[in-house]
């Protein structure tokens, strides 16, 4: 986006890669039965997929199986939720 913070940071000499990130806590993947899937005892969170590295140079988000989301209507889910299957929708807790 022209004029965006990302574009401004990309223009700084020496910057190798810039990725925007959106993170929201309190998000849980629900099965068709309305029950939470995956690691439900942990704080649920959702983030956009990006290929950027972690600040220490290690890989950031890693796809363990399948492929990374490529469209706005696609998501990647944790292995436990994938194993439980029968996904229906995502929701977030009230703010």
From TrEMBL:
It comes from the Bacteria. It comes from Branchiibius cervicis. This is Uncharacterized protein.
